[in-house]
């Protein structure tokens, strides 16, 4: 169970992320940080395949870097982001370089306006930042057409707590679901079982799992990230929407 000492609401994390500076947003650029450039984006694009002509929701789009990539590849993109600074940045970029991206400022857990609308929903490093992640996942799947793909990435739950400063790597606390303080608000450590159960409860089946490995040739160039060649920092999941939800309540059968 998640820590009960203090209940962290979606609004708390949205407010915390709203403190991100314009300089930090600008520095993210069109390719993102190290992890996105070398680990996450290549795997996401591999799982997405040819996106031309598909309707895609970038759920929790942040600065919109992925939404812009997908739009340039020929997708019809809707980008949803709750935080004011990043949403305004997306508006500015779309005005400066129109890619016909539909922009929505909204908490993913409150997104109920789409039903079987998109071919693909992507949530890139988003669900771990959302306290009410069960509702967020349900809304993503509701927004998908039958047979559509829900692709999301996370900090790898199995290794998030690893001491990466020395070998052999040591991991502890995997089964303790908890809020973890970060630069902006908290993220939430949950087991892989928890995520898979929520998918199953809402009529989705995991089709592929990717555990990005840092290329050997990059370990010398980026020694601070060299451990990423031995253990995965992230996991990328592709689930398919099969049918109706098997659970009618927000929490489902698992907690």
Can you give a write-up of this model?
This protein is of the alpha/beta class and 255 residues long. The chain has a single domain, classed as Vaccinia Virus protein VP39 (Rossmann fold, 3-Layer(aba) Sandwich), CATH 3.40.50. Helix content is 29%, strand content 22%. It has a seven-stranded mixed β-sheet with strand order 3-2-1-4-5-9-8, sandwiched between helices. A two-stranded antiparallel ribbon has the order 6-7. The protein is globular, with a radius of gyration of 18 Å.
What is the general shape? globular
CATH class: Alpha Beta
Q: Average pLDDT value?
A: 92
Number of domains: 1
Percent of residues in helices comes to: 25-40%
What's the CATH superfamily, by name? Answer: Vaccinia Virus protein VP39
Instruction: Indicate the CATH architecture.
Output: 3-Layer(aba) Sandwich
Q: Write down how many β-strands occur, each being a DSSP E stretch of 2 or more residues.
A: 9
Distance between the termini: 7 Å
Largest sheet: 7 strands, mixed
Number of helices: 8
Order of helices and strands: HHHEHEHEEHEEEHEHE
Helix- and strand-based class? alpha/beta
At CATH level 3, the topology is Rossmann fold
Largest sheet, order of strands side by side? 3-2-1-4-5-9-8
Give me some keywords for this one.
single chain; 255 residues; alpha/beta; Rossmann fold; 7-stranded mixed beta sheet; 8 helices; 9 strands; 29% helix; globular
């Amino acid at each position: 169970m998640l820590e009960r000492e203090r209940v962290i609401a979606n609004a708390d994390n949205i407010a915390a992320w709203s403190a991100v500076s314009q300089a930090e947003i600008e520095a993210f650029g069109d390719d993102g940080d190290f992890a996105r450039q070398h680990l996450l984006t290549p795997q996401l694009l591999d799982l997405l395949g040819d996106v031309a002509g598909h309707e895609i929701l970038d759920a929790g789009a942040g600065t919109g870097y992925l939404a812009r990539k997908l739009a340039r590849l020929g997708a019809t993109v809707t980008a949803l982001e709750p935080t004011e600074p990043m949403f305004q940045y997306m508006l500015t970029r779309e005005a400066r370089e129109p890619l016909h991206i539909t922009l929505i400022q909204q908490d993913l857990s409150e997104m109920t306006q789409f039903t079987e609308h998109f071919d693909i929903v992507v949530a890139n490093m988003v669900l771990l930042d959302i306290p009410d992640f069960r509702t967020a996942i349900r809304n993503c799947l509701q927004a998908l057409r039958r047979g559509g793909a829900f692709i999301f990435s996370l900090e790898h739950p199995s290794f998030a707590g690893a001491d990466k400063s020395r070998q052999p790597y040591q991991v502890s606390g995997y089964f303790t679901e908890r809020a973890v303080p970060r630069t902006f608000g908290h993220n939430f450590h949950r087991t892989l079982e928890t995520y898979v159960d929520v998918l199953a409860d809402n009529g989705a089946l995991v089709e592929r799992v990717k555990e990005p490995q840092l290329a050997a040739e990059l370990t010398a160039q980026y020694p601070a990230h060299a451990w990423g060649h031995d253990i995965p920092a992230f996991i990328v999941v592709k689930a398919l929407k099969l049918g109706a939800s098997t659970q009618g309540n927000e929490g489902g059968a698992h907690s």
